[in-house]
Protein backbone atom coordinates (compact mmCIF):
# COMPACT_ATOMS: atom_id res chain seq x y z
CA UNK A 1 0.00 0.00 0.00
CA UNK A 2 1.52 3.38 -0.88
CA UNK A 3 2.46 5.24 2.30
CA UNK A 4 2.40 2.07 4.41
CA UNK A 5 5.99 2.04 5.73
CA UNK A 6 5.98 -1.67 6.67
CA UNK A 7 4.77 -2.69 3.21
CA UNK A 8 7.65 -0.78 1.64
CA UNK A 9 10.25 -3.17 2.99
CA UNK A 10 9.86 -6.61 1.43
CA UNK A 11 9.52 -9.33 4.03
CA UNK A 12 11.19 -11.93 1.82
CA UNK A 13 13.93 -11.24 -0.74
CA UNK A 14 15.52 -13.88 -3.00
CA UNK A 15 18.69 -13.25 -5.00
CA UNK A 16 20.34 -14.92 -7.99
CA UNK A 17 23.94 -13.89 -7.31
CA UNK A 18 25.22 -13.77 -10.88
CA UNK A 19 28.37 -12.22 -12.36
CA UNK A 20 31.22 -13.56 -10.21
CA UNK A 21 33.02 -15.06 -13.22
CA UNK A 22 32.82 -11.88 -15.30
CA UNK A 23 33.93 -9.78 -12.32
CA UNK A 24 37.05 -11.98 -12.02
CA UNK A 25 37.72 -12.01 -15.78
CA UNK A 26 37.76 -8.21 -15.85
CA UNK A 27 40.60 -8.41 -13.32
CA UNK A 28 42.41 -11.23 -15.21
CA UNK A 29 41.86 -13.56 -12.28
CA UNK A 30 40.36 -17.09 -12.05
CA UNK A 31 36.63 -17.55 -11.57
CA UNK A 32 37.21 -18.75 -8.00
CA UNK A 33 38.55 -15.25 -7.21
CA UNK A 34 35.15 -13.89 -8.23
CA UNK A 35 33.29 -16.41 -6.07
CA UNK A 36 35.45 -15.41 -3.12
CA UNK A 37 34.61 -11.76 -3.70
CA UNK A 38 30.97 -12.86 -3.95
CA UNK A 39 31.17 -14.18 -0.42
CA UNK A 40 31.93 -10.66 0.83
CA UNK A 41 28.85 -9.39 -1.00
CA UNK A 42 26.79 -12.05 0.81
CA UNK A 43 27.98 -10.57 4.10
CA UNK A 44 27.10 -7.03 2.98
CA UNK A 45 23.60 -8.05 1.98
CA UNK A 46 22.96 -9.98 5.20
CA UNK A 47 24.02 -6.89 7.20
CA UNK A 48 21.76 -4.69 5.06
CA UNK A 49 18.78 -7.05 5.55
CA UNK A 50 19.31 -6.98 9.33
CA UNK A 51 19.38 -3.18 9.24
CA UNK A 52 16.38 -2.81 6.92
CA UNK A 53 14.23 -5.26 8.88
CA UNK A 54 13.88 -7.81 6.07
CA UNK A 55 12.67 -11.09 7.60
CA UNK A 56 13.83 -13.64 5.03
CA UNK A 57 16.74 -13.70 2.56
CA UNK A 58 17.04 -16.63 0.15
CA UNK A 59 20.26 -16.91 -1.85
CA UNK A 60 20.91 -19.08 -4.92
CA UNK A 61 24.44 -20.32 -4.20
CA UNK A 62 24.59 -23.48 -6.32
CA UNK A 63 22.00 -24.73 -8.78
CA UNK A 64 21.23 -28.34 -9.75
CA UNK A 65 22.81 -27.41 -13.10
CA UNK A 66 26.03 -26.00 -11.57
CA UNK A 67 27.36 -29.56 -11.08
CA UNK A 68 28.13 -29.43 -14.83
CA UNK A 69 30.77 -26.72 -14.35
CA UNK A 70 34.48 -27.67 -14.58
CA UNK A 71 35.47 -29.88 -11.67
CA UNK A 72 38.03 -27.43 -10.30
CA UNK A 73 35.38 -24.66 -10.13
CA UNK A 74 32.89 -26.96 -8.36
CA UNK A 75 35.66 -27.97 -5.95
CA UNK A 76 36.58 -24.33 -5.31
CA UNK A 77 32.93 -23.48 -4.59
CA UNK A 78 32.58 -26.40 -2.16
CA UNK A 79 35.78 -25.28 -0.38
CA UNK A 80 34.38 -21.77 -0.17
CA UNK A 81 31.10 -22.99 1.35
CA UNK A 82 33.02 -24.98 3.98
CA UNK A 83 35.27 -22.01 4.86
CA UNK A 84 32.28 -19.66 4.99
CA UNK A 85 30.41 -22.03 7.32
CA UNK A 86 33.43 -22.46 9.60
CA UNK A 87 34.09 -18.75 9.74
CA UNK A 88 30.70 -17.03 9.69
CA UNK A 89 28.19 -19.21 11.55
CA UNK A 90 28.99 -17.98 15.05
CA UNK A 91 28.77 -14.34 14.04
CA UNK A 92 25.51 -14.89 12.16
CA UNK A 93 24.17 -16.69 15.23
CA UNK A 94 25.11 -13.71 17.45
CA UNK A 95 22.97 -11.49 15.20
CA UNK A 96 19.95 -13.78 15.51
CA UNK A 97 20.26 -15.24 12.01
CA UNK A 98 18.67 -18.61 11.37
CA UNK A 99 20.49 -20.48 8.62
CA UNK A 100 18.78 -23.05 6.45
CA UNK A 101 20.01 -24.96 3.39
CA UNK A 102 17.44 -25.92 0.79
CA UNK A 103 17.94 -28.25 -2.16
CA UNK A 104 19.06 -31.79 -2.79
CA UNK A 105 21.48 -31.92 0.13
CA UNK A 106 22.04 -35.66 -0.45
CA UNK A 107 24.14 -34.67 -3.49
CA UNK A 108 26.91 -33.29 -1.25
CA UNK A 109 29.66 -35.27 0.40
CA UNK A 110 29.25 -36.30 4.02
CA UNK A 111 31.57 -33.71 5.69
CA UNK A 112 29.88 -30.77 3.96
CA UNK A 113 26.41 -32.18 4.70
CA UNK A 114 27.34 -32.51 8.35
CA UNK A 115 28.57 -28.89 8.47
CA UNK A 116 25.34 -27.68 6.86
CA UNK A 117 23.27 -29.69 9.34
CA UNK A 118 25.34 -28.41 12.27
CA UNK A 119 24.86 -24.78 11.15
CA UNK A 120 21.08 -25.34 10.84
CA UNK A 121 20.86 -26.96 14.27
CA UNK A 122 23.06 -24.32 15.92
CA UNK A 123 20.90 -21.43 14.64
CA UNK A 124 17.51 -23.17 14.73
CA UNK A 125 16.04 -21.02 17.52
CA UNK A 126 16.90 -17.68 15.91
CA UNK A 127 14.25 -15.59 14.19
CA UNK A 128 15.61 -12.06 13.57
CA UNK A 129 16.52 -12.92 9.98
CA UNK A 130 16.07 -16.23 8.15
CA UNK A 131 18.88 -16.80 5.65
CA UNK A 132 18.15 -19.68 3.27
CA UNK A 133 20.97 -20.90 1.06
CA UNK A 134 19.83 -22.81 -1.99
CA UNK A 135 22.40 -25.46 -2.92
CA UNK A 136 21.97 -28.16 -5.55
CA UNK A 137 18.57 -26.52 -5.82
CA UNK A 138 16.25 -26.22 -8.79
CA UNK A 139 12.69 -24.92 -8.85
CA UNK A 140 11.58 -27.98 -10.84
CA UNK A 141 13.31 -30.27 -8.34
CA UNK A 142 11.33 -28.53 -5.59
CA UNK A 143 7.99 -29.09 -7.37
CA UNK A 144 8.91 -32.75 -7.97
CA UNK A 145 9.90 -33.38 -4.32
CA UNK A 146 6.65 -31.76 -3.12
CA UNK A 147 4.63 -33.85 -5.60
CA UNK A 148 6.33 -37.00 -4.32
CA UNK A 149 5.32 -36.12 -0.78
CA UNK A 150 1.74 -35.53 -1.91
CA UNK A 151 1.73 -38.89 -3.74
CA UNK A 152 3.07 -40.59 -0.61
CA UNK A 153 0.29 -39.00 1.48
CA UNK A 154 -2.27 -40.29 -1.05
CA UNK A 155 -0.70 -43.78 -0.91
CA UNK A 156 -0.95 -43.75 2.91
CA UNK A 157 -4.62 -42.81 2.62
CA UNK A 158 -4.09 -39.42 4.32
CA UNK A 159 -5.02 -37.32 1.29
CA UNK A 160 -7.40 -37.90 -1.61
CA UNK A 161 -5.95 -37.18 -5.09
CA UNK A 162 -8.93 -34.91 -5.82
CA UNK A 163 -8.12 -32.88 -2.70
CA UNK A 164 -4.66 -31.93 -3.95
CA UNK A 165 -4.83 -28.14 -4.21
CA UNK A 166 -2.41 -25.22 -4.43
CA UNK A 167 -2.53 -25.00 -0.64
CA UNK A 168 -2.03 -28.71 0.05
CA UNK A 169 0.78 -29.11 -2.51
CA UNK A 170 2.28 -25.78 -1.44
CA UNK A 171 2.79 -27.02 2.13
CA UNK A 172 5.54 -29.36 0.87
CA UNK A 173 7.45 -26.77 -1.15
CA UNK A 174 10.71 -25.46 0.32
CA UNK A 175 10.19 -22.39 2.54
CA UNK A 176 6.42 -22.99 2.89
CA UNK A 177 6.62 -22.02 6.57
CA UNK A 178 8.10 -18.58 5.81
CA UNK A 179 6.50 -15.38 4.47
CA UNK A 180 5.90 -15.53 0.71
CA UNK A 181 8.55 -14.20 -1.65
CA UNK A 182 8.10 -10.45 -2.24
CA UNK A 183 11.16 -9.41 -4.21
CA UNK A 184 13.28 -11.47 -6.61
CA UNK A 185 16.62 -9.87 -7.50
CA UNK A 186 19.05 -11.02 -10.18
CA UNK A 187 22.43 -9.36 -10.57
CA UNK A 188 24.78 -9.66 -13.55
CA UNK A 189 22.58 -8.34 -16.34
CA UNK A 190 20.65 -11.46 -17.42
CA UNK A 191 16.85 -11.21 -17.28
CA UNK A 192 15.90 -14.78 -16.50
CA UNK A 193 14.83 -16.89 -13.55
CA UNK A 194 17.12 -19.90 -14.26
CA UNK A 195 15.03 -22.49 -12.43
CA UNK A 196 15.09 -20.70 -9.04
CA UNK A 197 11.99 -20.82 -6.77
CA UNK A 198 9.53 -21.43 -9.64
CA UNK A 199 6.55 -22.11 -7.37
CA UNK A 200 7.36 -19.40 -4.82
CA UNK A 201 7.93 -16.69 -7.44
CA UNK A 202 4.24 -16.55 -8.49
CA UNK A 203 3.52 -13.07 -7.10
CA UNK A 204 7.05 -11.78 -6.48
CA UNK A 205 8.21 -8.49 -7.94
CA UNK A 206 11.20 -9.00 -10.26
CA UNK A 207 14.25 -6.72 -10.20
CA UNK A 208 17.16 -7.10 -12.60
CA UNK A 209 20.39 -5.13 -12.36
CA UNK A 210 23.57 -5.05 -14.46
CA UNK A 211 25.69 -4.82 -11.30
CA UNK A 212 27.93 -7.90 -11.03
CA UNK A 213 27.37 -9.78 -7.76
CA UNK A 214 30.72 -8.90 -6.07
CA UNK A 215 29.90 -5.21 -6.60
CA UNK A 216 26.39 -5.52 -5.13
CA UNK A 217 26.58 -3.67 -1.80
CA UNK A 218 24.27 -2.21 0.84
CA UNK A 219 23.44 0.80 -1.36
CA UNK A 220 22.52 -1.58 -4.21
CA UNK A 221 20.09 -3.41 -1.93
CA UNK A 222 18.58 -0.09 -0.77
CA UNK A 223 18.04 0.86 -4.43
CA UNK A 224 16.25 -2.45 -5.09
CA UNK A 225 14.04 -1.94 -2.01
CA UNK A 226 13.19 1.60 -3.10
CA UNK A 227 12.24 0.32 -6.54
CA UNK A 228 10.06 -2.37 -4.90
CA UNK A 229 8.35 0.25 -2.71
CA UNK A 230 7.16 2.06 -5.86
CA UNK A 231 5.49 -1.04 -7.31
CA UNK A 232 1.75 -1.61 -7.06
CA UNK A 233 1.07 -5.23 -6.21
CA UNK A 234 -2.37 -6.12 -7.51
CA UNK A 235 -2.53 -9.95 -7.23
CA UNK A 236 -4.91 -10.07 -10.19
CA UNK A 237 -7.16 -7.26 -8.96
CA UNK A 238 -7.54 -3.78 -10.49
CA UNK A 239 -5.72 -0.65 -9.39
CA UNK A 240 -9.06 0.80 -8.20
CA UNK A 241 -9.78 -2.24 -6.05
CA UNK A 242 -6.36 -1.87 -4.43
CA UNK A 243 -6.92 1.85 -3.80
CA UNK A 244 -10.45 1.36 -2.35
CA UNK A 245 -10.57 -2.04 -0.64
CA UNK A 246 -14.17 -2.91 0.27
C1 LIG B 1 27.12 -17.14 -10.38
O1 LIG B 1 28.11 -16.36 -11.01
C2 LIG B 1 27.53 -17.51 -9.03
C3 LIG B 1 27.63 -18.78 -8.55
C4 LIG B 1 27.34 -19.99 -9.35
C5 LIG B 1 28.10 -19.05 -7.18
C6 LIG B 1 27.56 -18.12 -6.11
C7 LIG B 1 28.40 -18.26 -4.93
C8 LIG B 1 28.79 -17.24 -4.14
C9 LIG B 1 28.32 -15.85 -4.32
C10 LIG B 1 29.75 -17.55 -3.08
C11 LIG B 1 29.32 -17.21 -1.71
C12 LIG B 1 28.11 -17.89 -1.24
C13 LIG B 1 27.92 -18.29 0.03
C14 LIG B 1 26.56 -18.72 0.42
C15 LIG B 1 28.99 -18.32 1.05
P1 LIG B 1 28.78 -16.92 -12.32
O2 LIG B 1 29.95 -17.76 -11.93
O3 LIG B 1 27.76 -17.62 -13.17
O4 LIG B 1 29.27 -15.60 -13.01
P2 LIG B 1 29.33 -15.28 -14.59
O5 LIG B 1 27.92 -15.30 -15.08
O6 LIG B 1 29.94 -13.91 -14.64
O7 LIG B 1 30.20 -16.33 -15.21
Count the E strands: 6
Please give the share of residues in helix: 40-55%
Terminus-to-terminus distance: 14 Å
Strand order, biggest sheet?
3-4-2-1-5-6
CATH homolog superfamily: Decaprenyl diphosphate synthase-like
Number of domain modules: 1
The succession of helices and strands, N to C, reads HEHHEHEHEHHEEHH
Task: Report the structural category.
Answer: alpha/beta
The small-molecule ligands in this entry are: farnesyl diphosphate
What amount of the residues lies in strands? 5-15%
How much is the radius of gyration in Å?
A: 19 Å
Would you mind describing this structure in some detail?
The chain has 246 residues and is α/β, with parallel strands linked by helices. The protein has a single domain, classed as Undecaprenyl pyrophosphate synthetase (3-Layer(aba) Sandwich). Helices cover 44% and strands 15% of the residues. It has 9 helices and 6 strands; from the N terminus they run αβααβαβαβααββαα. A 6-stranded parallel sheet has the order 3-4-2-1-5-6, sandwiched between helices. Helix 5 links the parallel strand 3 and strand 4. Helix 2 packs across helix 3, helix 3 runs parallel beside helix 4 and helix 4 packs parallel to helix 5. The longest helix has 24 residues. It starts with a helix and ends with a helix. Farnesyl diphosphate binds next to helix 2, helix 3, strand 2 and helix 4.
